[in-house]
Amino acid sequence: TNNPWDLSRTPGGSSGGAAAALATGMTALEIGSDIGSSIRNPAHYCGVFGHKPTMGVVPLHGHMLPGDHAFIDLLVGGPLARSAADLIAAIDILAGPGGYDARGWRLTLPPSKKKKLKDFKVGVMLESPVGVQDNELTACLQKSLEQLEHAGVMIDYSVAPAIDFKRYHHVYMLLLRSATGLALSHDEFASNLEASQMRADTDWGHRAYVERGAAIRQRDWWSLHNEREALRKAWDEFFAQYDLLLCPVAASAAFPHDHTGERPDRTIQINGQTQSVIDQLFWAGISTLTHLPSSVVPAGLTQSGLPCGLQIIGNFLEDYTTLEFAHLMEQAIGGFQGVPGYT
C-alpha cells in the first residue's frame, strides 16, 4: 500500500491500508489492532484520526489466529476515522466485555475530565531519549501546540512523568518481543534462544531484543511485568496533576518505501542522519507498555507537505478524556485535510 500524500512513501502499518482508504474517501471507518503503533502510525502518516484504547476495553474475540484461545500481552483493538466524533461513536459501540466476561462484568468508562480546552492542563514531551527526532515534524507539532495554547489549553513544556524513559523503553521492547515471539515455530524459537545466549551482555540492538524477548523465561517476564506495574503508579501520580500528556506518534513523518533485507536492519533519514527505523517504537511504547489510552489527531503538514499527528495520552480507562480533547482540538485548529487529487 502506498501513502496517498506521496506514493513513494509508506502509509504505516499494520493498518496502512485502512488509513490510506480513509484518507482517500474509500471508507468512513476502520478498525485495527495496536501493539507497536499499528493504529497510531498509519493515522499519523496518512493524516487521519486513530485511537488506541486502554488495554482490555475493546474485546479481541475474532481477531485471534486460528487455534489461539488466549490473548497476548500489550495488544489492543481500536478505530481509525476522519473525525474525533467518529472515533467516539466507534468506542461507544466497541467497548465492553466479551467472551466469558460478558456473563457478569460490565464496563462503564468515566466521562471526560473536562469539556472545554481552557480547562485542560497538559504536559508536553517532544523529544525521544532513545533516538533522533525529525526537526520538520517537531516544528509542525510545535505550531499546533502554540495554537492550542492560544485556544486556552494550559501547557507545561517542562514536565513529564517521573520515569527513566530509557529503562521504560527497554522494558517495553522485551515485553513486546516476548509477545510477538509467541508466533514463532519451534525451530525459530530454538534459533532465537541459541542466538540470544551468544550475545554480549552489552548488546541491546534490535535483533538482541527480538532474540531475548522470544526466549524469555517466565521468571524474567514476571520481573519485567512487576516493574511495569510500578511504572503504572508513576503515571497515576502524573495524571493526578495533569489531565493529559501530548507527544509525537513517531520520530518522523512517513518515510520512503524500503523492502530490502529484514526490518531490524533497515534505516531512515532523519535530519540528514541515518537512523534505525526501529527507533520509531519509543513513541509506540510510551502508552502501550502501561496499558494507557492514546488518541491521534491530525496536526497539520510538515514543510515537505507530509501529514503529522499529535498523540494524546490519558490515564488508565480515561479513553473519553483523550477523545474529548481530540474533538475539541479538531474544532479549534482543524483536523482532517483532504488529500490533493482525491475527492
List keywords for this structure.
single chain, 343 residues, alpha+beta, eight-stranded mixed β-sheet, two-stranded antiparallel ribbon
Brief sketch in words of this structure:
By secondary structure, the chain is of the alpha+beta class.
Helix-residue proportion:
25-40%
Shape: globular
Main β-sheet, spatial strand arrangement:
1-3-2-9-10-6-4-5
Helix and strand string, N-terminal first?
Answer: HEHEEHEHEHHHHEEEHEEH
Radius of gyration based on Cα positions: 19 Å
Question: How large is the share of residues in beta strands?
Answer: 5-15%
Distance between the termini: 19 Å
Main sheet attributes: strand count, strand direction, barrel closure: 8 strands, mixed
Query: Helix- and strand-based class?
Result: alpha+beta
Chain-wise SSE layout:
Blueprint: H1 16-23, E1 29-34, H2 40-46, E2 49-52, E3 76-81, H3 84-94, E4 121-124, H4 135-150, E5 154-156, H5 165-180, H6 186-198, H7 206-214, H8 218-239, E6 244-248, E7 267-270, E8 273-276, H9 281-288, E9 294-301, E10 307-313, H10 319-333
Parallel strand pairs: 4-5, 4-6
Antiparallel strand pairs: 1-3, 2-3, 2-9, 6-10, 7-8, 9-10
Structure description:
The protein has 343 residues and is of the alpha+beta class. Helix content is 36%, strand content 15%. It is built from ten helices and ten strands. The protein has an eight-stranded mixed β-sheet, with helices on both faces. α4 links the parallel β4 and β5. α5 packs across α9. The model has no long low-confidence stretch (mean pLDDT 95).
